[in-house]
Write a structure and sequence with these properties.
This protein has about 300 residues and is of the alpha/beta class. The protein has ten helices and eleven strands.
């Protein structure tokens, strides 16, 4: 019998109910705090099988590099120890840009391939989950984590680890899917973000703020921006994987080509850029963007 969570991952309540729309992923919603999570705990074999399907293509879009530069510009005000760590840093592209700007860069990843690619870029790597014992306490100015928190079913431990290695007044910046997004409401059960065991925790601005403030962080802002046209198109035709299909490798979803085309058009066409900015304003104002972008400062 598969192991299951007996309490809410965020508030510890035992009062949670299934979400029928997302029964294929075994999602439950806490009646006390509203947090949504996969009730089944994946085995090591499930996770290994799933993540072995990941592509490690080392290409990065010039537009993404430009966004990284803009993000790093905003981090300059926090530069004291000159140390930055990207938790779940993938191929290390963000940290490579940070390194070129003079930051001392650190990263974490799981696979040997990812570790090798990052080390080749000059990044100091730790394999496995973030372990504060590997770093001096309160030694980092910045912690980043791009699209990682949704993969984790021990959120309090993760943010506690952040707190241990971040200096007082340091910044955490992370992104994670928004469970209140317009895409979810449009696509319902076909929303491809919901996929077990790929994603185990699903946040809204309210639950993300609650998680960080529980660990003595001040919330600077949480933005909700973006809508993935490519993901919407692919989600409509993608067959769902149920939690009972334990040893079946998931098919990687490549929804990025369509979105990249639109990004390129927005960079070069002023009218499309204006439309994009207006849409993002509306999505952020209503809290319906696909992505949560959170900025948190350690008290």
């Amino acid at each position: 019998m598969p192991q299951q969570h007996s309490a809410c991952l965020l508030c510890g309540s035992t009062h949670f109910v299934p979400l029928p729309t997302f029964q294929h992923a075994g999602l439950q919603q806490c009646k006390e705090c509203g947090f949504v999570f996969a009730v089944q705990i994946p085995t090591v074999a499930e996770l290994t099988t799933h993540y072995n399907t990941y592509s490690r293509n080392d290409y990065i879009s010039p537009i993404t590099v430009k966004r990284y530069e803009e993000l790093l510009d905003s981090f300059e005000a926090y530069r004291q120890t000159n140390k930055i760590i990207d938790v779940g840093c993938g191929n290390g592209h963000f940290l490579k840009v940070a390194l070129q700007r003079g930051w001392e860069v650190y990263g974490t990843e799981y696979t040997d391939e990812a570790i090798a690619q990052c080390q080749a870029k000059g990044i100091k790597m730790q394999q496995g989950e973030l372990n504060p014992k590997h770093y001096a306490p309160e030694s980092f100015d910045i912690i980043t984590s791009f699209e990682v928190l949704e993969h984790i079913n021990t959120p309090h431990q993760e943010i506690s680890n952040f707190h241990a290695i971040l200096r007082k007044g340091g910044l955490v910046y992370l992104t994670t899917p928004n469970f209140n997004s317009v895409s979810k409401h449009l696509l319902k059960e076909n929303w491809s973000v919901v996929e077990y065991p790929e994603h185990l925790s699903y946040y809204t601005p309210k639950t993300l703020k609650r998680l960080f403030e529980k660990h003595q962080f001040t919330t600077l802002q949480i933005l909700t921006t973006g809508i993935s046209i490519g993901r919407i198109q692919l989600a409509k035709s993608k067959p769902q994987t149920t939690v009972s299909q334990e040893n079946t490798p998931a098919t990687p979803v490549n929804f990025r080509a369509e979105d990249e085309t639109l990004r390129q058009q927005a960079e070069t066409n002023p009218l499309i850029k204006l439309a994009k900015n207006m849409i993002n304003f509306i999505l952020n104002t209503t809290g319906k963007g696909d992505s949560l972008k959170g900025y948190f400062v350690k008290k």
